Amino acid sequence: MSMIFSSTAQSCKGYAFSSNKIFRACNDLPYLNSYLHWNYDSSSNKLQIAYRHTGITSSRWVSWAINPTSTGMAGSQALVAFQQTDGTMRAYTSPISSYQTSLQEGKLSFDVSDLSATLASKEIIIFATIGTFKQEHYC
């Protein structure tokens, strides 16, 4: 017997953003029900990203983080988005210093601009432009 699940049949390739944004590269993150889309501009050393998390039901928040200095959760730099009580979306940055994080708002070790989020069709998308890592934070 063969079964195909819809979540494994989806792919980030060919996804059309309602905002008409175009991303040249993407990765499927099937274990997270997510997709990461990006454009890298080598002249400015900036990364434009869209992190899509699908299948949103009762929970109305998502977070995507990277750890530029290690492989664990502590030291990660997170982008967080959630639906506020008035229905609008709020996006902010949160440095994670321990495993007991509450995702408090704070400045990251790299520049983040154009941070926003959308919620539609059971999917939250976080948009951001990430600048170069500030090496002085790690010396």
From TrEMBL:
This protein's UniProt keywords = Electron transport, Membrane, Signal, Transport
Which InterPro entries did the record assign? Answer: AIR12_DOMON, DOMON_domain
PROSITE patterns xref list: DOMON
Q: Can the keyword rRNA-binding be found in this entry's annotation?
A: no
Ranges for domain DOMON come to 32-139
Task: Report the principal subcellular site.
Answer: membrane
One Gene Ontology term, aspect cellular component:
membrane
| Species | Salix udensis
Lineage, highest ranks first? Eukaryota, Viridiplantae, Streptophyta, Embryophyta, Tracheophyta
Query: So which residues are the signal peptide here?
Result: none
CDD domains, alphabetized: DOMON_CIL1_like
From the Swiss-Prot or TrEMBL record, give the protein name: DOMON domain-containing protein
Question: Where's it found, cell-wise?
Answer: Membrane
Q: Which domain of life is it from?
A: Eukaryota
